[in-house]
Amino acid sequence: MALLKAHKVSSPVVVVGIRGYYAKMGKTPANERNLWDDAIIVISSGGETYATFNGNVDPSAYGTNPKINKPYAVLKPGVWTYKLGLHGIRRGNPYRALVQGAPVTVLRDNKEETGWFGINIHAGGTNPLRTQSEGCQTLPGRPGERGSQWEAFIALVASELKRNNAKTVSYVLVNNA
């Protein structure tokens, strides 16, 4: 709760991403890409609901994203607004996810860029070595996969939004100290 106070977050539903939370699970003692070594936490109603999940808050790859001919986007730590929406529309397989509710700031080779980039919070699949991210925040599992962390996460967020009569989620992203 101190983290939320420090970031002046008072939303009834909050998702916290902690980059590198499980850093020692990879090949190095640092945060790595393409690995479920980050934590994603759902908190609502002043701490009444609290659940933690493995996640990935980094792109899966380094270098240039060939789809846009720019470096992969890394979401900058901060407080961002998200809402329920659809991910995967362009690929023809849309499913419920958290989508940007306002512009976000990303880093591309340490240069900041702010806008609407589709930096969503979505399912990352079941391959332990492929987190399915070009800059999004992902959780293990597939849409509709019973028992997956993804399905538990999105069901919890949706139910907490409804219970709190809220339309948006504050997403607080921090680097593990």
Overview of the structural elements:
With 177 residues, the protein is mainly beta. The chain has one domain (13-175): L,D-transpeptidase catalytic domain-like (Beta Barrel), CATH 2.40.440. Helices cover 11% and strands 38% of the residues. It is built from two helices and 13 strands; from the N terminus they run αββββββββββββαβ. It has helices spanning 2-6, 149-163; strands at residues 13-19, 38-44, 49-55, 64-65, 70-71, 74-75, 78-87, 95-100, 104-108, 111-115, 121-123, 137-139, 168-175. It has a six-stranded mixed beta sheet, with helices on one face. A three-stranded antiparallel beta sheet has the order 6-9-10, with no helix packed on it. A two-stranded antiparallel sheet has the order 4-5. Strand 2 (38-44) and strand 3 (49-55) form a beta hairpin. It is globular, with a radius of gyration of 15 Å.
Class based on secondary structure composition and strand pairing: mainly beta
Integer count of domains: 1
The spatial strand order of the largest sheet comes to: 3-2-1-13-7-8
The stretches of 5 or more residues where confidence is low (pLDDT under 50) are none
Helix content: 10-25%
Q: Strand percentage, roughly? A: 35-45%
CATH architecture: Beta Barrel
